[in-house]
Batch of 4 targets.
Target 1
Amino acid sequence: MNTLTTKWGRCGAFTILLGVLLSPAPAAAQSRMSDLDSDATYETQKHLTLAVTKFPEARTALTAFIRKRSVRVQKQEETPSQLKAEFALPKSDLVRLDSLTTAMGFVLENNLNAHDLGGRVGELSAEEQRDVTQLATLQQQLGTAAGSKDERAELRREVERTTNRLADLRQQLAAINGHAGQAYVSLRLYDEVSFPTGNRRVSFVNMPGVEYGYLRLDNPKVGLTSSVYQGYALKYLVTRGKSYLNLGVYRPTEKNSTDEDFVNELFVINFGQDFYPRNFGRGRRRYLNLYTSYQLGGFILNRNSDKGNEFIPNLNLGLGLEILKTRHILLDTKASYFVPLNDRSRDLRGVLGQASFNFVF
């Protein structure tokens, strides 16, 4: 009896150790379970982003399509300006989905990815076979009367772990087989009117550059202002939505050193943003993207006498055209109306032309 117990104890300890080594970590098991609720069990995945101007009509049409054509809806979130959905769709209906979305508005993203799950199925099947063999061995050992109470308790726990792992593997295999011929679609629809950038998260960039400015005043005053001011500025793009900082100096083209009150310098500090329209490139073309813009800030007005210098807030509203735009450089032009926001507005307002060059640093 002692010999039998010793042999069983060695065999049981080896089996339990083998089971522990072959058992997946808790995180891996959780990952496998989460895979059943994602696109990992589909051979085809599609990511679609769509911007529309008639959001209520587009949302109604897409929700009706999902309700009618989808095999399973994993997630569907709706807000007054956005719709997000993840659902399984027969591959044959992908063409219908593309036709529907193309007619609705502007498709920003339409990515179709396909990969072979044969290797994954082979791995899962091999794991399943190993677990079946191990479970049979454990159950046979548990059926014997040998072993201490603690050893048998540990053996029962190992049987339970192996059984759960085997059920998980079979569930994954069933999910992959059940999703054959289907595609997993991640869809995002948003209202371009109330949500023009398409992304509430700010995407920062680092694009310094230089800008030339030419300011022609509408009502220059003799002895006080020049008819034209020109100069250079640093223009620093800080977001992909073309938010930028502007810091520069404009000086008169007409020299005047005799009049003490003559404005001989405008030191400009501005923050600006550009907005692309729904036509004329939408900011995605390489050449000739049209946009509207505003600049808000102020300037320090300096005089020949260095007296009466003051900071004056200003607002510019304008229209611009990107001459060249790539991932690394931007050549930009714009025309705006320069409006000082104080009682000297009549003497200093005018048309401002700007040309800038920025690059990724």
Target 2
Amino acid sequence: MTMISVAVDGEVVAAADTDGLALLSVRLFGSVTEPHAAMLSFDGTVAAGGAGGYRTWLEALRLRAGQAVTVRFGADGTAATPVRTQAGLHPGQPPDIRTDVKPTPQQTAAMRSQPRVRAGFSFVITTSTGTECEVRSGPEDENFQCLVLWTLDALPDVARIRASVSNRERIVRREHGTPAFEGRLALGDSVTIRCGD
């Protein structure tokens, strides 16, 4: 059994066992068009042959500047928290089975028209092995994403860490963000991401 747990300011808010899963993803993301420092989500997919495909442990948690998210990879005695399926999250709605999610012209126009409500963003990534990286937005940067990703089919004893920055025009053009940090968690390792302003 390998657990991935997510804590905010030291309190576990979600945890999942990798057994029977194909993918687990912890995502911290933020934008200068939103007043909160970041949003936190935790979801995954079941392995081939599993029912219901998509699972969510944490749909969207707003974070303030100064709050810290710690993702721990490995069995540490943390109990798994309740999980919800797509049907449980959005009862009465048909499942979204699209694989190519392209924004509509209306969504693109709405994204471009959103005003900036803060000057920029920052965050600090610190791993339990001693690596530290501070990221501050540049003049062109409007959003960021920090991802901790575990997949069954690629290095199941490792979780990957990726952080990137981008802006609305690059998102509209479906371009990748600029890498800000890349790393790995071995069993027993953790990473802490502290939200800045």
Target 3
Amino acid sequence: MNFPRLHINQQNASIAINKYEPPVQIKQHSANMQIDQRRGDYVRMHSTSSQLFIDQSLAFADAHLKSPLNMASEYYQKMTSSVFSFISKKINEGKQLAAIENGRNAFSDIAKAANQPPMKKSNITYMPKSMDRVKFDFVPGTVHFNVPSGEIDVYVQRRDPEIFFPKWKSDVYVKQKNQIAFEVIGANINKGL
């Protein structure tokens, strides 16, 4: 016996999506920049000269090259000492002559002392006598700088970016409709029932 069979043919629905995704565009324009620097500012420099002072007065004095006032002062000192030594010599001679009654021959002693030549002296001397007779005094020079601050003025005008963002689109549609079909296979069936 051949029984009828039911055959079901089914087809799913199919959905499709069309996407439109254009790229984002960004344009960034350069900023406008202006830099102003002051040109009137100058570096100013002030200097003082160095000075060298050399004092050779003591070295010149050793060579007997002295100022008239110094020479007069020295001669005055020598003169006073020689006057005092002469007075002292004459006082001693007077004392010797006053003691003539003691039997001494004071005249011959005084004459002998007066006619005796002075002892000769030898000396070695250097001019100047030492290195400290010439004095140096050095005053260093100075240099002063006046440097301006060197400020600059910067002006910036910023420019916003331009952004192009087109809309994205998605189109959804039914590519294939769903469907179901029934079919009896194998026997004669009264379909009118």
Target 4
Amino acid sequence: MSKQAHDPVAADIQRLIREGELYRIKVVHAKALVAQAMRPDALMHGAVDHAVSLAQARLGGLMQPGGLSNFNYKALMPYAITVGSFLARKRLIKPVLGVAALAGVGVAWLLKRKRSTG
């Protein structure tokens, strides 16, 4: 009879020990996830993903049927001014113009190549 009285207690103790082990494993896993998320490359990847999704959400109207015909410049101007102000503050105007010129040359080359092959 004494054995039957102690079995539920021993089972509860074993269950609590297993729950404690599982909790400790979850804590170690959470620490590893936080350490991974705080790495600079992960932070940069998250920031780029966030910026891309924000741009897609804000400028998604351009991709709809009609495109630029019903483009609302007044809605885009606050964003353009913010970006322009940031570039001016960081003195990045010349590098941005250089990148834009290179992009233009690249697009022109691609269009020329497409016309010659098509």
